[in-house]
Design brief:
- The structure holds 2 protein chains of 2 kinds.
- By secondary structure, chain A is α+β, with helices and mostly antiparallel strands.
- Helices cover 28% and strands 22% of the residues of chain A.
- Chain A starts with 7 loop residues before the first helix and ends with a strand.
- Chain B has helices at 2-29, 34-39, 45-54, 61-73, 87-122, 127-141, 144-158, 174-208, 211-218, 223-260, 266-275, 279-307.
- The longest helix of chain B has 38 residues, at 223-260.
- The chains are: A alpha+beta, B mainly alpha.
- At the A-B interface, helix 1, helix 5 and helix 11 of A face helix 2, helix 3, helix 5, helix 7 and helix 8 of B.
Chain lengths: 495, 314
């Protein structure tokens, strides 16, 4: 096909040199990572880039959220509670940290005590606020006495901030996290890659299946696509956009995994700013948006339309996508009732760091124009978005994906950037936090969601899909992501 | 000459001082908070506030600057807020990528631009000249990042000769390192090569019109000597001036190409640090780049003396 006679020796040399990565043992995986983690300490940063590498791969917690979103015993082989206030965890025996020392109950106490201590700057102290006494009964038994019933206690023990690490490694976790996970950190070449290697003493027999995992930081999606096609990386877990999917689905070399996530993309309205203080205006904006068209226009049709906060991977999910269907006529009527017969102008602040925010914003601006809301899109840098929009609520409209699981609590916090302040909702939420009975809690969640739809503090648009692309033959990846982690313990090459 | 060097050294220190103060103020005045970036929207503003306190970002800006300056004068550029690693070590770890990348681009630029510019000037207003100018026009028109992607598509995806990005490192030998920098160096040097071709051509054309060239030719001096000895050396002053400026621009251009080729260089370090408002790193990288540019300019000035003995610095 190509006749490069003179270049043959050069080509041969290149092939020899390329042979190193190509001929490596099959159980190696090279994964693209779009964002380099800001640090590897899960007890210091909530960044999903950190969780994507460290959580479940290097460090684990007492309880695990499995691939179906269910809470399962993990470093604790079981737990017991008779009153939902006193919990006893029985630790799995023989679990070793990567430094060779066995994990004991004293480590668990140290970790949770440290998370509760405000001095340590744990990003989520609120998850441990209800814990009273922690008592080590013996090396493998530990009890937690809660100050009040906390429905999410077990979930909180499964969160990324609750990973168990050895006390002696606490000072180096930002750059060298040590845990009990299936992989050990081998090296972090800042700006280039993170390498994990198999933990031969892993406490689950037969796992992990890979010998080595290399995360390469490739920020540019086109460069990532090229790297995938050139065979330089085996998989892109989050870095590719929906526009790449049709082409890759046709390519016999690759498999595309499309699944659910907890990342709900929302159009947020500043509830403390006029005209969004008026519920009729907020409802009008909701009714003025054709969500299926948004998903089509901004996401190539990938992504599930939603109608409220609770995501489809949550056990209390109810489909409310049709609760406020597209109805521009009704939207205009509501705006007129609210005193805006000719609509109004709004500034939509988006951070292009997240590609979908800009695209979604463009489609929304076009749709809202039809009900008289003239949207001006203002692109701002991510750190500015965090300061101005998220922290100071200096905005009219904004779009962002909320990746946290179980984040309905945000709507009960009037200081959160939505500035949604409903005493009724807050009461329902507080009740749900102390209600342990599943049926009663489910009912409360339903009532909360109905209240949210009614008050329309934000517009819930769609769930950002999980889009992972791998070479054919890679198996064991989670299809859905019930939490922002990327568990590679069961991943293996079949050929 | 000694006084000249002393003057230049003083200007060097003043430049660095000015640049550091400017960067400090600009990064601090920009909206954005490193603690918020580290905590992110998944955390709480309260957690970010605690972190800000711990990082010492709540103190008055002048106090922070004075402290940084005192440290910097002792050779300590501080610790990265984002990575928790000394800035000096971070910069040193990125130099093995950015320096060779810039140098390779510069070598490619000089190796391609000088002969091509010379050729175009000698073929003035003939087909060869027009062709060379057309090629250089294309080089000016194509943005580096796009050229980079095209090169990746051809040489990595289609032909599979080189890897699509990333840096192999120097520990495994010279060639793997050079190979991973080859495409980015070409993409980086393309625009500057095109500019230098034009600068070379016009400078050579100017000299070729000089009386002494006509005299040399009239005396029967060989064409090789006319071009190599009489023309090129006299034409080099403006070329070296342009090339010196371009060397600085190559370092700046590395920021974008390092992202396209996923290279762990200084440019990407700076880009990430600006996004994360990691001030100590932004400061460190800026100072490094500013020093390099001042030093390059100084070297260019010294080169003038070598090229043209009539130039004296008093």
């Amino acid at each position: 096909m190509r006749s490069f006679g003179k270049l043959l020796p050069l080509a041969a040399l290149s092939v020899c040199l390329l042979a190193f990565p190509a001929a490596a043992p099959a159980q190696n995986l090279v994964v693209q990572l779009a964002t380099e983690p800001p640090g590897l300490d899960l007890t210091a940063t909530p960044a999903s880039a950190t969780a994507g590498v460290v959580f479940y791969n290097v460090q684990e917690s007492l309880v695990k959220v499995d691939r179906h979103g269910k809470l399962v015993p993990w470093l604790a082989e079981r737990w017991h509670t008779s009153d939902n206030k006193n919990y006893t965890f029985f630790l799995k025996r023989g679990v070793r940290f990567h430094n060779g020392r066995e994990m004991k109950a004293a480590d668990v106490k140290f970790v949770i005590d440290r998370a509760m201590n405000p001095e340590t700057k744990h990003p989520y102290p609120q998850y441990y606020a209800a814990i009273g006494d922690i008592v080590v009964k013996d090396d493998y038994t530990i009890t937690f006495a809660l100050k009040s019933t906390t429905a999410n206690f077990l979930l909180n023990m499964a969160r990324q901030g609750s990973v168990i690490y050895p006390r002696e490694a606490v000072d180096t976790m930002k750059s060298e996290p040590i845990g009990t996970g299936p992989y050990k950190l081998a090296e972090w070449v800042r700006g280039d890659r993170i390498v994990l290697v198999k933990n031969p003493d892993y406490h689950v027999k037969g796992l992990p299946k890979l010998d080595r995992v290399t995360y390469r930081f490739i920020p540019d999606p086109n460069a990532a696509l090229a790297a995938l096609k050139a065979g330089d990386i085996d998989a892109a877990m989050f870095g590719l956009g929906p526009e790449h999917v049709p082409e890759l689905q046709k390519d016999p070399r690759f498999q595309v995994i499309i699944g659910e996530t907890t990342n709900d993309v929302i159009l947020s309205m500043n509830n403390s700013r006029k005209p969004y203080t008026d519920v009729r205006v907020r409802r009008a904006v909701t009714l003025g948006i054709n969500k299926p068209e948004v998903v089509k226009g901004a996401m190539f049709g990938l992504g599930r339309v939603i109608g409220t906060n609770v995501d489809p991977l949550n056990p209390y999910f109810v489909d409310m996508s049709n609760a406020m269907p597209y109805d521009p006529a009704k939207a205009k009527k509501l705006l007129a009732e609210a005193g805006y017969p000719n609509g109004f102008e709004a500034v939509l602040r988006v951070a292009p760091q997240y590609y979908y925010t800009v695209r979604t914003g463009e489609v929304l601006a076009d749709q809202l124009q039809k009900i008289g809301v003239k949207v001006k899109i203002e692109q701002i840098e991510w750190s500015q978005w965090l300061s101005r929009v998220w922290k100071d609520a200096e905005y009219d409209l904004t779009i962002i994906g909320h990746a946290e699981a179980w984040d309905i609590a945000n709507y009960a916090n009037p200081k959160y950037y939505f500035r949604y302040d409903s005493a009724e909702f807050q009461k329902l939420f507080q009740e749900s936090e102390v209600t342990v009975d599943d049926k009663a809690r489910r009912d409360l969640y339903l009532r909360m969601q109905k209240k949210l739809v009614e008050d329309a503090p934000v517009v819930w648009l769609y769930i950002h899909p999980r889009l992972a692309v791998t070479k054919k033959g890679l198996q064991g990846l989670w299809k859905d992501l019930p939490l922002p982690a990327s568990d590679l313990s069961e991943v293996a090459w079949t050929k | 000459m000694r006084r000249y060097i002393a003057r230049r050294a003083a200007a060097f220190v003043a430049t660095l001082f000015f640049v550091s103060a400017l960067v400090f103020v600009v990064v601090r005045v920009l909206p954005g908070d490193p603690a918020l970036v580290i905590i992110g929207p998944e955390g709480s503003p309260e957690a970010a506030a605690r972190l800000r306190e711990a990082l010492g970002l709540n103190r008055p800006i002048l106090v922070q600057y004075a402290e940084w300056l005192a440290q910097a004068l002792r050779g300590d550029l501080g610790v990265s807020l984002q990575y928790d690693v000394p800035v000096g070590r971070l910069i040193l770890s990125r130099l093995p990528v950015t320096l060779p990348l810039t140098l390779m681009a510069a070598v490619l630029m000089a190796a391609a631009a000088l002969p091509l510019g010379l050729y175009a000037a000698r073929r003035h207003r003939r087909a060869g000249d027009y062709l060379a100018m057309a090629v250089s026009q294309i080089g000016i028109a194509i943005p580096g990042f796009w050229a980079g992607l095209l090169l990746i598509l051809l040489f990595s995806v289609r032909l599979g000769w080189v890897q699509s990005g990333g840096f192999a490192g120097w520990s495994s030998g010279l060639w793997p390192g050079v190979r991973s920098l080859l495409l980015p160096a070409v993409a980086l040097g393309l625009f500057q090569t095109a500019v230098l071709v034009r600068a070379t051509r016009s400078s050579v054309l100017d000299v070729l019109r000089e009386d002494y060239i006509r005299t040399a030719r009239a005396k029967g001096v060989s064409e090789l000597s006319v071009i190599g000895k009489h023309t090129l050396r006299n034409a080099l002053i403006p070329i070296v001036t342009v090339a010196g400026i371009q060397l600085g621009q190559l370092m700046a251009g590395a920021i974008i190409l390092e992202s396209v080729f996923a290279l762990p260089g200084l440019g990407r370090l700076a880009l990430g640090a600006i996004a994360a408002r990691d001030l100590p790193v932004v400061q460190g990288v800026t100072l490094f780049v500013a020093s390099s540019i001042v030093l390059i300019n100084f070297a260019v000035d010294l080169l003038y003396v070598v090229l043209d003995p009539r130039i004296r610095y008093e």
